């Protein structure tokens, strides 16, 4: 198949095809406005074609709306908001009847999409709605209604991010005087009604309160000014929840989960891995003490305060919290993730104790999640973050305030307030000069290391890092490098100098990290290429020669002749019967052996030949396996035989054989935990654990059996070791015995990753595993499984 | 999730001219496709490297290397087939336009592999794009085939122009005088690398190609 780029013949057909079929509904946005400086000239032709196809008034408007949020120049922002509000009002005049009848028409939906998908611009859009509200309050009313309906819908679906973003929009609408502060407090009250439930469940309550807390920084000041008493009451209610929560203390699932999900475990983490939820409450309290001044936030609506005052305000319908059900996945407690800690100079990122840390990190997280479908756009939005905050927040985008003022004076058609009369904190100079790229690195890695699973496949985050390096080529790579060094130093939590790594115990995590990284690079590239780029001292841990085959039946072997025949037959695609016949000849070479020993010899011969033929490439090996599947299956009829096959194929092809049902998962597990491979446990760890996971994923039918086997084997192995160490009186196993460090780490990982599956037969598991002398470490894994899988946190707090 | 930016996991505008079926069929095939076309590979990239990268998005069912129609060597494309549609989509989002073997590779959703599609459709055996390519690309056999021919013609022409017949015969060369005309013509012929030589140039040894071990070049066929 070819892609004849230079071939003009197909151009016409191609256009038609593209236009008709794969036109994403909102693709116009991208086509029209996103193609920026770095477009390749080749695609220009298509752009025009695209515009012609999609230039309906609707799409034109939509693109204007999106573009408003895109604008990076604050000087133009106000002008654009005003222009757009006029356009929308005029346009709405034409279509208003239709819109008011069908409230879910495209326009309203698109605006809500924007709210949920451009979280960084909600204050700008709220200002827009505010201006529309002044002229045509029925449009704004329709929007508020739609927003509250979406809120209810997102709540019922358990889409917590959606709830949060709609709440943030309602909050900004309050700032733009479209909603009364009193109304907003009532909505908050709806969310906080979770605390009035007869039995307060911790994770459920945490989820709703976290949504409230994450939107408070944007509105705190106005609520404090306009509704001081009610606002105070609300905060007190939250405070009493936190008091009750703290008193409840130990033995609850949230704490077990928190410790199970910590990025660092062991004695001495580089910083306290506290729950982000608790930190957020501390940040909010600090903000409250500072009179809710958060100067980094953009407040485009403040310019129009005097205009907004004339507009109507709209009511928001009360909504109901969804009942507690299995369907709702409440938020897990989230341990704080930090890379840049310790003695390094970290004044260029927000301090953890301040609300700015939460606001910025949370926004980056949302953008990364929302724009997963297009990593390039994702980076573009991340890059534009500085324009969504007050100038001076980040150390990019130099802008002068006086320039903005002048521009406004010239262009504004609204009777706006003089800037000097703005709320006083507006005049505070912000000189944080935070490094956005540093925060982005931290958040991306936080997502990669997120437990029990990252939200998306890890490769998404890797590609995102690559895009970031391209888009921010001057500033991003150094941060990434700095991070990588920090990561390596922190593997196992012991700081060392790089050179010393090479002299460590072969099981030392740092050495394993370096070695496996090298092996991985070889597999992506090729042996010679990597070898020539390495410093000499690394050759000690580098494989001494290119990976090659290790064929047992060389010319000294008794079966050498037979193996040659067999190889020739395999290559010439002989029939199954012919191969069988050749294999049977092997018996003659071992006349004295029992029939089962002969079987073993035949199986070994066949497997070795299959591997040799297959060693040419991945396709070759699959072809040869598929062609002689019948033979493989007949040779692998017994568990011992399967175990033998596993041993020969090692990590390479296990998942494939498993798929073809030549071997079963139990055989792999037995092999992994067998005496022979135990010593290589850590050395082979990556493959082994992957194989385990593959086995687990694949065999749904045998799942219970497999999972039980894994658990029991882990328990047995670890118990044996524990006894051994107890006899030798070695304490502090985790930091002194690397074998134990690895094995226990994997055990935790399996428990954490498969908690939902394990939970289905937790009772069986407990009866099998729990013995009077069970080690607390193994009990700990059991409790992790129980805690993680239990969405309906049974640990409750009596009413406040 | 996001609707206001275009998702990366949509098929490109390319349509396989040899696809048998209506546009609706194609749409349906693509909507459930588990197969990806991968392009702009180096001729030297091995299946294992492709496997290593693409298995990041899910378990791979098979890889079909694109081969030169005549020489049966890799010619810079392949098909990767997954077990799940979602894995192919993820690949479009995460792997498309990243680098493999120091080249930016391109992936595209494919309606599904059929026998015969593993061969290049260019006149010279490779992909059509290598037929008309104007630049020099070391990973893909140097110049495009058409360009290589042009360059060769130019070179031959230039050589012909600049060629000066020896007019003054050095002293002492008298004894070879009789042969000089014939030999100069032979010389001329030898200087110009003919098709044979070009062929070998194009077929530079691939260091990662394990052809020494066996001889069945056509193993790539999927005769299940």
From TrEMBL, chain A:
<dbReference type="GO" id="GO:0003729">
    <property type="term" value="F:mRNA binding"/>
</dbReference>
<feature type="region of interest" description="Disordered">
    <location>
        <begin position="400"/>
        <end position="426"/>
    </location>
</feature>
<dbReference type="Pfam" id="PF09088">
    <property type="entry name" value="MIF4G_like"/>
</dbReference>
<comment type="similarity">
    <text>Belongs to the NCBP1 family.</text>
</comment>
<dbReference type="InterPro" id="IPR015174">
    <property type="entry name" value="MIF4G-like_typ-2"/>
</dbReference>
<feature type="compositionally biased region" description="Polar residues">
    <location>
        <begin position="400"/>
        <end position="415"/>
    </location>
</feature>
<dbReference type="GO" id="GO:0005846">
    <property type="term" value="C:nuclear cap binding complex"/>
</dbReference>
<dbReference type="GO" id="GO:0006397">
    <property type="term" value="P:mRNA processing"/>
</dbReference>
<feature type="domain" description="MIF4G">
    <location>
        <begin position="58"/>
        <end position="288"/>
    </location>
</feature>
<dbReference type="InterPro" id="IPR003890">
    <property type="entry name" value="MIF4G-like_typ-3"/>
</dbReference>
<feature type="region of interest" description="Disordered">
    <location>
        <begin position="1"/>
        <end position="20"/>
    </location>
</feature>
<dbReference type="GO" id="GO:0008380">
    <property type="term" value="P:RNA splicing"/>
</dbReference>
<feature type="compositionally biased region" description="Acidic residues">
    <location>
        <begin position="417"/>
        <end position="426"/>
    </location>
</feature>
<keyword id="KW-0507">mRNA processing</keyword>
<dbReference type="InterPro" id="IPR027159">
    <property type="entry name" value="CBP80"/>
</dbReference>
<keyword id="KW-0539">Nucleus</keyword>
<dbReference type="GO" id="GO:0000339">
    <property type="term" value="F:RNA cap binding"/>
</dbReference>
<dbReference type="InterPro" id="IPR016024">
    <property type="entry name" value="ARM-type_fold"/>
</dbReference>
<dbReference type="GO" id="GO:0005634">
    <property type="term" value="C:nucleus"/>
</dbReference>
<protein>
    <submittedName>
        <fullName>11794_t:CDS:1</fullName>
    </submittedName>
</protein>
<dbReference type="GO" id="GO:0000184">
    <property type="term" value="P:nuclear-transcribed mRNA catabolic process, nonsense-mediated decay"/>
</dbReference>
<keyword id="KW-0508">mRNA splicing</keyword>
From TrEMBL, chain B:
<protein>
    <recommendedName>
        <fullName>Nuclear cap-binding protein subunit 2</fullName>
    </recommendedName>
</protein>
<feature type="domain" description="RRM">
    <location>
        <begin position="34"/>
        <end position="112"/>
    </location>
</feature>
<dbReference type="Pfam" id="PF00076">
    <property type="entry name" value="RRM_1"/>
</dbReference>
<dbReference type="InterPro" id="IPR035979">
    <property type="entry name" value="RBD_domain_sf"/>
</dbReference>
<dbReference type="InterPro" id="IPR012677">
    <property type="entry name" value="Nucleotide-bd_a/b_plait_sf"/>
</dbReference>
<keyword id="KW-0539">Nucleus</keyword>
<keyword id="KW-0508">mRNA splicing</keyword>
<feature type="compositionally biased region" description="Basic and acidic residues">
    <location>
        <begin position="151"/>
        <end position="163"/>
    </location>
</feature>
<dbReference type="GO" id="GO:0005634">
    <property type="term" value="C:nucleus"/>
</dbReference>
<feature type="region of interest" description="Disordered">
    <location>
        <begin position="151"/>
        <end position="224"/>
    </location>
</feature>
<keyword id="KW-0507">mRNA processing</keyword>
<dbReference type="GO" id="GO:0045292">
    <property type="term" value="P:mRNA cis splicing, via spliceosome"/>
</dbReference>
<dbReference type="InterPro" id="IPR000504">
    <property type="entry name" value="RRM_dom"/>
</dbReference>
<dbReference type="GO" id="GO:0000339">
    <property type="term" value="F:RNA cap binding"/>
</dbReference>
<keyword id="KW-0694">RNA-binding</keyword>
<feature type="compositionally biased region" description="Basic and acidic residues">
    <location>
        <begin position="191"/>
        <end position="213"/>
    </location>
</feature>
<dbReference type="InterPro" id="IPR034148">
    <property type="entry name" value="NCBP2_RRM"/>
</dbReference>
<dbReference type="GO" id="GO:0005846">
    <property type="term" value="C:nuclear cap binding complex"/>
</dbReference>
<feature type="compositionally biased region" description="Acidic residues">
    <location>
        <begin position="214"/>
        <end position="224"/>
    </location>
</feature>
<comment type="similarity">
    <text>Belongs to the RRM NCBP2 family.</text>
</comment>
<dbReference type="InterPro" id="IPR027157">
    <property type="entry name" value="NCBP2"/>
</dbReference>
């Amino acid at each position: 198949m070819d892609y004849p780029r230079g071939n003009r013949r197909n151009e016409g057909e191609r256009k038609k095809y593209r236009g008709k079929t794969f036109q994403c509904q909102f693709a116009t946005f991208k086509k029209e406005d996103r193609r920026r400086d770095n477009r390749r000239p080749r695609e220009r032709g298509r752009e025009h074609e695209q515009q012609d196809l999609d230039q309906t008034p609707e799409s034109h408007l939509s693109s204007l709306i999106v573009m408003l949020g895109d604008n990076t120049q604050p000087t133009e922002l106000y002008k654009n908001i005003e222009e757009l509000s006029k356009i929308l009002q005029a346009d709405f005049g034409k279509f208003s009847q239709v819109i008011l009848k069908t409230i879910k028409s495209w326009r309203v939906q698109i605006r809500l999409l924007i709210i949920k998908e451009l979280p960084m611009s909600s204050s700008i859009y709220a200002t827009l709605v505010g201006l529309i509200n002044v002229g045509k309050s029925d449009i704004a009313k329709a929007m508020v209604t739609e927003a509250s309906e979406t809120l209810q819908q997102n709540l019922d679906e358990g889409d917590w991010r959606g709830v949060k973003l709609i709440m943030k929009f309602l909050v900004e609408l309050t700032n733009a005087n479209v909603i009364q502060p009193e109304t907003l407090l009532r909505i908050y009250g709806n969310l906080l009604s979770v605390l009035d439930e007869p039995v307060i469940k911790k994770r459920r309550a945490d989820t709703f309160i976290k949504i409230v807390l994450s939107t408070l920084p944007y509105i705190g000041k106005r609520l404090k000014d306009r509704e001081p008493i009610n606002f105070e009451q609300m905060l007190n209610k939250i405070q009493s929840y936190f008091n009750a929560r703290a008193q409840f203390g130990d033995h609850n699932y949230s704490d077990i989960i928190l410790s199970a999900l910590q990025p660092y475990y062991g004695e001495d983490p580089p910083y306290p891995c506290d729950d982000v939820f608790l930190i957020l409450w501390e940040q909010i309290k600090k903000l409250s003490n500072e009179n809710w001044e958060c100067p980094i936030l953009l407040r485009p609506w403040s310019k129009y305060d005097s205009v907004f005052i004339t507009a109507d305000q709209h009511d928001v319908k009360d909504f109901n919290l969804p009942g507690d059900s299995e369907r709702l996945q409440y938020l897990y407690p989230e341990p704080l993730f930090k890379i840049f800690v310790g003695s390094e100079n970290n004044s260029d990122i927000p301090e953890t104790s301040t609300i700015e840390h939460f606001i910025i990190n949370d926004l980056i997280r949302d953008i990364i999640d929302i724009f997963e479908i297009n990593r390039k756009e994702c980076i573009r939005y991340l890059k534009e973050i500085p324009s969504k905050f007050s100038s001076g927040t980040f150390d990019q985008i130099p802008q002068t305030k006086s320039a903005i003022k002048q521009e406004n004076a010239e262009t504004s058609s609204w009777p706006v307030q003089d800037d000097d009369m703005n709320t006083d904190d507006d005049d505070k100079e912000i000189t944080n000069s935070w490094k956005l790229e540093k925060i982005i690195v931290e958040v991306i890695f936080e997502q990669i290391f997120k437990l029990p699973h990252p939200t998306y496949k890890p490769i998404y985050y890797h590609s995102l890092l690559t895009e970031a390096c391209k888009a921010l080529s001057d500033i991003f790579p150094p941060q990434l490098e700095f991070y990588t060094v920090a990561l390596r130093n922190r593997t196992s939590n012991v700081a060392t100098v790089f050179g010393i790594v090479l002299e460590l115990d072969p099981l030392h995590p740092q050495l394993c990290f370096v070695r496996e990284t090298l092996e991985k690079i070889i597999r992506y590239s090729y042996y010679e290429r990597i070898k020539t780029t390495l410093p000499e001292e690394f050759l000690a841990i580098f494989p001494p020669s290119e990976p090659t085959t290790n064929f047992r039946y060389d010319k000294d072997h008794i079966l050498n002749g037979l193996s040659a025949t067999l190889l020739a037959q395999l290559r010439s695609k002989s029939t199954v019967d012919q191969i069988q016949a050749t294999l049977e000849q092997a018996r003659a070479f071992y006349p004295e052996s029992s029939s089962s020993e002969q079987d073993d010899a035949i199986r070994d011969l066949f497997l070795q030949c299959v591997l040799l033929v297959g060693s040419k490439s991945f396709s070759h090996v699959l072809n040869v396996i598929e062609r002689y599947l019948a033979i493989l299956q007949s040779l692998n009829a017994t568990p011992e035989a399967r175990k033998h096959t596993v041993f020969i194929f090692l990590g390479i092809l296990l998942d494939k054989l498993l798929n073809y049902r030549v071997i079963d998962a139990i055989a792999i597990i037995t092999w992994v935990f067998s005496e022979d491979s135990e010593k290589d446990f850590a050395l082979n760890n990556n493959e082994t654990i992957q194989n385990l996971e593959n086995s687990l994923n694949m065999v749904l039918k045998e799942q219970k059996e497999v999972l039980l086997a894994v658990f029991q084997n882990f328990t047995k192995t670890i118990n044996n070791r524990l006894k051994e160490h107890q006899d030798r009186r070695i304490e502090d196993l985790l930091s002194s015995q690397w074998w134990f460090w690895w094995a226990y780490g994997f055990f935790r990982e399996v428990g954490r990753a498969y908690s939902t599956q394990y939970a289905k037969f937790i009772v069986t598991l407990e009866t099998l595993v729990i013995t009077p002398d069970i080690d607390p470490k193994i009990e700990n894994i059991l409790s992790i499984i129980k805690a993680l899988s239990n969405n309906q946190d049974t640990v409750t707090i009596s009413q406040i | 999730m996001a609707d206001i930016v275009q998702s990366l996991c949509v098929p490109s505008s390319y349509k396989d001219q040899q696809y048998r079926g209506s546009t609706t069929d194609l749409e349906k095939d693509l909507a459930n496709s588990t197969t990806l076309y991968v392009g702009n590979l180096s001729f030297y990239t091995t299946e294992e490297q492709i496997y290593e990268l693409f298995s990041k998005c899910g378990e791979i069912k098979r890889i079909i290397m694109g081969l030169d129609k005549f020489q049966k060597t890799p010619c810079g494309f392949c098909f990767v087939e997954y077990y799940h549609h979602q894995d192919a989509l993820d690949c479009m989002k995460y792997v498309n336009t990243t680098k493999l073997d120091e080249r930016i590779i391109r992936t595209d959703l494919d309606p599904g592999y059929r026998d015969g599609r593993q061969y290049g459709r260019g006149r010279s055996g490779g992909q059509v794009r290598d037929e008309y390519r104007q630049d020099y690309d070391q990973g893909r056999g140097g110049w495009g085939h058409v360009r290589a021919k042009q360059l060769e013609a130019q070179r031959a022409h230039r050589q012909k122009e600049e060629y000066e017949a020896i007019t003054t015969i050095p002293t002492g060369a008298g004894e070879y005088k009789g042969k000089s005309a014939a030999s100069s013509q032979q010389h001329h012929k030898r200087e110009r690398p003919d098709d044979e030589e070009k062929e070998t140039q194009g077929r530079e040894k691939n260091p990662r190609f394990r052809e020494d071990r066996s001889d069945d070049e056509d193993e790539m066929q999927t005769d299940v």
